[in-house]
Amino acid sequence: MRDVGGFRYGEPLRFRIHLKAEGTLPSLFIGAGIDDILGHRVATFDSNNVDFDFSIQQGREYVFELAIPQPYLNPGRYFLSVSLFSGLIFYDLLVPRHLVRRLAD
Questions:
Q1: Average pLDDT per run of 10 along the chain, which is 105 residues long?
Q2: CA torsion, points 21, 25, 30, 35, in degrees to nearest 10?
Q3: 96 to 17, 44, 50, 80: CA distances (angstroms)
Q4: How many independent structural domains does the chain possess?
Q5: What CATH number is given to the structural domain containing 28?
């Protein structure tokens, strides 16, 4: 796979998220949201909806991939937000814009 700067209208989306755990937690879920340029949420993806959870250990690195085969987004600019959560506690991940790349085959 190679990194590319954007994606074209109607094509599948794939994002890869890398993180390093600063603590140990026994059960986490991951969620991602796509917001439009005005900040309105247009799509939400949560691993708890498909019964997928995982544990993390302090100091270890993890990689997650989000694939959206048919995004149904209108042409425009969008923002991706990602968070880890356990119960009602959310651990937001801040992703600098220059580190976000769409993955192409």
A1: 64 84 89 88 90 91 88 86 84 57 47
A2: -70
A3: 12, 20, 28, 11
A4: 1
A5: 2.70.50.60
